[in-house]
C-alpha cells in the first residue's frame, strides 16, 4: 500500500478514536485541545514516516506519540494544568500520573460517550450531523461541505457554534446510564438516521463520499449495538433498515449519477449480503415487544427487497405504512401508503384517498396523483404531472416527471 | 380544527353476536386501513389503544359488576380521538368504519373548547 494511502486510512480510523478518548478524558470544554493533540500526532507521523519509513505497527506508534504529546502538553501548560487537572476524570492529582487509556474498551466507551454528547437536542440536528461527521467520523471541513453541497465557511461556523453551545450547556461526556437510555437514545438514533440519509439521498455527485457517509452512520449504530446498555431493539431495527437501504445503493443511480427509480432498478445490482444482514437484524429485534418507527420502516424496506409484485408483498407494505402513520404522521409516509393502497385495493380507491391528503405544496403529491391517474384518465394524469413539474426544484426530479408526461397516451 | 371522539359500539355478549369473532378477525385489515387513512390525513390525535374486553362497571353502593355486557348489547368496542373541521367532516370519516357493515355503530362527539386560565 502507498504510504500516503496508509496514512489516509489510519487517519480515517484512528483520528476519531484518539479525539474521543481525549475528549472523554478532558471534557467538552477542551475539545479543541484534544483535536490539536491528535492533529499534531498525525503531523508528526507524516514527517517522521516520510524520513524514516513507516513503523512496524503504525497504530501503536500513533497511540504512543499521542500519549506522549498529551503528557507533554499537560506538563508544559501550567495554565492548562491548573484549569484542567481538577476536572480530569481519573482524579489524577499530578499531570505526570494522567493515564491516556487507549485500550479497546476505553476507546469503545469514549466513542459511545461522544455519540451521546454530540447527538444532543441542545444543538440543531443539522449541527449535530456536521459535528458528528467532524468529531465522531474524522471528516474534514471540506468533505463535510462537499457532502452538504455548501462551502467550508458555513460548515466551519456551524461546527464552532455547536461546540460553543455544548460548552455553554456544560454537556458531560459520559456513559449514559441504563435509566437515561430511553430518553437519550431517541435523539441519537434520529441524528444517525439523518446522517445516513444525508449520504443516501444527497444530490452530491461524489458517490464515494456519499457511500462513506452511509458507512459511517452504520458504524456508529453498530457501536451502539456493541454496548449492552444501548443494544436496544430500536437500534437493531435502525441497523436493519440501513442495511436494506444500502443494499440498493449501487442500483439507484446510473453511470451519469441520475436517480434510477425502484421499478427500473436492475436487481442483480442489489447487494445480497446486506439484504441478508438486514433480514438477520430484523428478525433479531422483532423478538422485543416495543415497536418503533424503525421496526416498521425496516419491515417496509424488507418487502422492497422482494422485487416481484405479489399480493403478500403489497398487503404487508400497506399494513406497515398504516402502522407507521398511526405511530407518527409524515407526508412522505402518507404518499407511500396511498401508493401501496393502489397496489392492494386498486387505483379508484387510492385516488379518492389521495385527494384527501391535500399536500398541495409537494411535487411528490402531484406525481403520485399523476401515477394513479395514468391509464385511468390520462388527461387528468397530465394535469397533475404538470403541477408536479412546476413544484419540482431538482433537475433530476424534473427529468423524471417529464419522462412520465411523455409516456402518457393522450 | 376541532377534536372529536369516535366511539364504536358493538354487541360483545350475545351468543350469536354480530360481528362474530371470525368477522372481527376478517375486519382487522379493513379497520387498520381505515385508521391508516385517517392518519395519512394527519387527522389522528393519538394512536388508538386496544381495550381489554373484560371490563368492570361501578354503580351506586359500591356495586361492581364484570362488564356492562349482561344488560346492553352495545358495548364500547373502541374509542379514539380525531381532528376535523366540523361534524360533517367527522361524520364522513366515521362512515368509513368497516365494522358498521356488521351492525356496529359509531358515536361522534365534538370536544368543547375550554379555556383554562
From TrEMBL, chain A:
An individual GO BP term: DNA-templated transcription initiation
Domain of life: Bacteria
Domain called DUF6596: residue spans: 184-284
Recorded GO MF terms: DNA-binding transcription factor activity
InterPro entries (alphabetical): DUF6596, RNA_pol_sigma70_r2, RNA_pol_sigma_r2, RNA_pol_sigma_r3/r4-like
Residues in RNA polymerase sigma-70 region domain copies: 10-76
PANTHER family cross-referenced by the UniProt entry: BLL6612 PROTEIN, BLL6612 PROTEIN-RELATED
Protein name: RNA polymerase subunit sigma
Organism encoding this protein: Flavobacterium microcysteis
Automatic annotation (TrEMBL), chain B:
Signal peptide stretch: none
Pfam families named among the record's database cross-references: YCII (PF03795)
Domain YCII-related residue range list: 60-108
Superkingdom of origin organism: Bacteria
Stored InterPro entries: Dimeric_a/b-barrel, YCII
SUPFAM superfamilies with a match to the protein in the record: Dimeric alpha+beta barrel
Family: Belongs to the YciI family.
Protein's name according to its UniProt entry: Transcription initiation protein
Amino acid at each position: 500500500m502507498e504510504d500516503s494511502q496508509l496514512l489516509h486510512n489510519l487517519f480515517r480510523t484512528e483520528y476519531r478514536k484518539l479525539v474521543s478518548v481525549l475528549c472523554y478524558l478532558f471534557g467538552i470544554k477542551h475539545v479543541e485541545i484534544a483535536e490539536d493533540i491528535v492533529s499534531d500526532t498525525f503531523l508528526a507521523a507524516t514527517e517522521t514516516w516520510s524520513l524514516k519509513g513507516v513503523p512496524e505497527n503504525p497504530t501503536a506508534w500513533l497511540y504512543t506519540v499521542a500519549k506522549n504529546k498529551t503528557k507533554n502538553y499537560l506538563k508544559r501548560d501550567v495554565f492548562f494544568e491548573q484549569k484542567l487537572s481538577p476536572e480530569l476524570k481519573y482524579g489524577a492529582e499530578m499531570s505526570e500520573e494522567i493515564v491516556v487509556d487507549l485500550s479497546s474498551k476505553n476507546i469503545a466507551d469514549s466513542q459511545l460517550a461522544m455519540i451521546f454528547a454530540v447527538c444532543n437536542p441542545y444543538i440543531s440536528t443539522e449541527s449535530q450531523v456536521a459535528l458528528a461527521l467532524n468529531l465522531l467520523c474524522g471528516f474534514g471541513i471540506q468533505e463535510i461541505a462537499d457532502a452538504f453541497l455548501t462551502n467550508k465557511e458555513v460548515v466551519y461556523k456551524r461546527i464552532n457554534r455547536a461546540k460553543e453551545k455544548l460548552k455553554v450547556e456544560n454537556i458531560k461526556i459520559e456513559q449514559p446510564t441504563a435509566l437515561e437510555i430511553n430518553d437519550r437514545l431517541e435523539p441519537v438514533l434520529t441524528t444517525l438516521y439523518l446522517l445516513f440519509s444525508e449520504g443516501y439521498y444527497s444530490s452530491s455527485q461524489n458517490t464515494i463520499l456519499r457511500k462513506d457517509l452511509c458507512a459511517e452512520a452504520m458504524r456508529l449504530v453498530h457501536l451502539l449495538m456493541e454496548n449492552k446498555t444501548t443494544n436496544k431493539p430500536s437500534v437493531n431495527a435502525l441497523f436493519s433498515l440501513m442495511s436494506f437501504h444500502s443494499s440498493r445503493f449501487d442500483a439507484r443511480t446510473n453511470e451519469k449519477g441520475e436517480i434510477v427509480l425502484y421499478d427500473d432498478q436492475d436487481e442483480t445490482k442489489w447487494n445480497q449480503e446486506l439484504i441478508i444482514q438486514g433480514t438477520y437484524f430484523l428478525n433479531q429485534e422483532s423478538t422485543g415487544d416495543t415497536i418503533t418507527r424503525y421496526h416498521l420502516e425496516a419491515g417496509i424496506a424488507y418487502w422492497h427487497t422482494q422485487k416481484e409484485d405479489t399480493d403478500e408483498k403489497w398487503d404487508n407494505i400497506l399494513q406497515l405504512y398504516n402502522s407507521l402513520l398511526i405511530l407518527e404522521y409524515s407526508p412522505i409516509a402518507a404518499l407511500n401508503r396511498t401508493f401501496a393502497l393502489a397496489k392492494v385495493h386498486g387505483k379508484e380507491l387510492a385516488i379518492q384517498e389521495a385527494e384527501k391528503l391535500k399536500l398541495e405544496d409537494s411535487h411528490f403529491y402531484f406525481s403520485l396523483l399523476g401515477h394513479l391517474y395514468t391509464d385511468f384518465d390520462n388527461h387528468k394524469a397530465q394535469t397533475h404531472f404538470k403541477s408536479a413539474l412546476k413544484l419540482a426544484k431538482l433537475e433530476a426530479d424534473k427529468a423524471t416527471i417529464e419522462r412520465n408526461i411523455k409516456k402518457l397516451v393522450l | 380544527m376541532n377534536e372529536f371522539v369516535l366511539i364504536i359500539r358493538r354487541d360483545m355478549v350475545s351468543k350469536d353476536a354480530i360481528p362474530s369473532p371470525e368477522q372481527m378477525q376478517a375486519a382487522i385489515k379493513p379497520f387498520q386501513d381505515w385508521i391508516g387513512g385517517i392518519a395519512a390525513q394527519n387527522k389522528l390525535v393519538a394512536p388508538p389503544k386496544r381495550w381489554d374486553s373484560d371490563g368492570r362497571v361501578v354503580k351506586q353502593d359500591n356495586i361492581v359488576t364484570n362488564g356492562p355486557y349482561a344488560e346492553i348489547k352495545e358495548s364500547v368496542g373502541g374509542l379514539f380521538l380525531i381532528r376535523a373541521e366540523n361534524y360533517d367532516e367527522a361524520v364522513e370519516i366515521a362512515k368509513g368504519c368497516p365494522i358498521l357493515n356488521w351492525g356496529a355503530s359509531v358515536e361522534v362527539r365534538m370536544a368543547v373548547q375550554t379555556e383554562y386560565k
